[in-house]
Amino acid sequence: MYWIKGRSATSARLGFSHTNRKTKAPSKAAAVTSTTAVETYLVLLERTGRAQQALDEYAKLVPADCPLSPYAPTLLRLAQASGGWQRYFEICQQRNDVVGFAAGQLSQQVP
Which of 42, 51, 52, 71 is the most exposed place for a label (fewest CB within 10 A)? Predict the structure, then answer.
């Protein structure tokens, strides 16, 4: 095997460098890089009077462990706007959100 400027002839022909390093696979947390598009979609649905649809889309598009910006509507706000409390409680149960479930119960009782 011949060496060409720090590389073997085989690696030079194949275009490999001895300095190539393996990269790590992206983590699941890195998969969601930005929530701006989803947040904008939810805001537009809420502002156009389609809070029930926004509630359903929130459940589909927002991962349970992914925080949204303060500008995005919360699940609780969407449930209040749409009156879709049954769907709200289903989402809370799916996400094991005990605090959200309790907040929904209290919000229903407030006139």
Answer: 71
